Amino acid sequence: MNKQHDKMMTDLQRLLGTQDFQSEAELRKFMESIAGQQIPSFPKEALTYQEQAQDLVFEAYELPPAKAKRNIEKALQLDSNCIEAYEFLASIEDSVEIASALYEKGIAIGRQVFGGEYLEKHKGAFWGFHETRPFMRCMQHYSDCLYIMGKVKECVAILEEMMELNPNDNQGARDQLLLYLIQLDEREKFEKYAKMFEDDSMAFALFNRALFAFKTEGDTANANKQLQNALKRNKFVAAKLLSKKPITNLPDHYGFGDENEADYYTHFAQHIWKNTNGASAWLMKHSAKS
């Protein structure tokens, strides 16, 4: 995640908060007037304690560990409910159990702050509001921790909650959700979420559909078609799934059909393919033909 961009968006939100727009037209005119300009940072004395705490967290990402932790301590003294502070502490934690607890703390704060009327008004568009993003990021990272700890059902429950809060799924939670639903044999839920994103043509979606078809139908014409579609989309995935070598490091970015995309999918999916009876042999047979 680009923290400089996150800081810029925070400053933009603060700047907009100082304006008194009477219409959407006024808002658009103001946005056009500042297009291409650097968004000004507000002086410390103009910020609330909560905003000062946020800025200390932004600074922490640019500091050595010891200084960064001092920043976070100051941030929590200013605002004990600073979700960004718990997100930061979790992100630098080596212990998955401790990281999980810190993300869970951020989520608990978020549910309190963004519950009630806020939830009723904004449910379904949570990623669209800048203030909810640290909460949503904590949820995603928390789900990862739960999965690593073997708590697959709990992980899926968090991912489903994320889908309810933001069905557009800007964070890509559906990728792992659908994969883990295959693992749990949750056929109806898989079909529900797969239908929501039936136009998704990334490798993650296509190989998930192929695996689901094979697991629920066997070596059928439909399953074979799904697999061929996936193999055509990314030629690198099959060999990586069949390899004995796990992908331990996630790429920073990936594109349609490239090797990074294959690494990304394999990192999450390799063990599920290998633990699905007959799936590896089926994949090997058809990848040899393509």
Q: What's the rounded overall pLDDT mean?
A: 91
Percent helix: 55-70%
Radius of gyration: 22 Å
Assigned CATH class of the largest domain: Mainly Alpha
Structure, described:
- 33% of the residues are buried.
- The mean pLDDT is 91.
- The protein has 290 residues and is mainly α.
- It has helices at residues 3-17, 24-34, 49-60, 65-78, 83-91, 96-113, 116-122, 133-148, 152-165, 173-183, 187-196, 203-217, 221-233, 237-242, 259-274, 279-289.
- Helix 3 (49-60) runs antiparallel to helix 4 (65-78).
- It is built from 16 helices and no strands.
Helices and strands, with pairings:
Blueprint: H1 3-17, H2 24-34, H3 49-60, H4 65-78, H5 83-91, H6 96-113, H7 116-122, H8 133-148, H9 152-165, H10 173-183, H11 187-196, H12 203-217, H13 221-233, H14 237-242, H15 259-274, H16 279-289
Helix pairs in contact: 3-4, 5-6, 6-8, 8-9, 9-10, 10-11, 10-12, 12-13
In short:
This protein has helices at 3-17, 24-34, 49-60, 65-78, 83-91, 96-113, 116-122, 133-148, 152-165, 173-183, 187-196, 203-217, 221-233, 237-242, 259-274, 279-289. It is elongated and about 65 Å long.
Provide tags for this entry.
single chain, 290 residues, mainly alpha, Serine Threonine Protein Phosphatase 5, Tetratricopeptide repeat
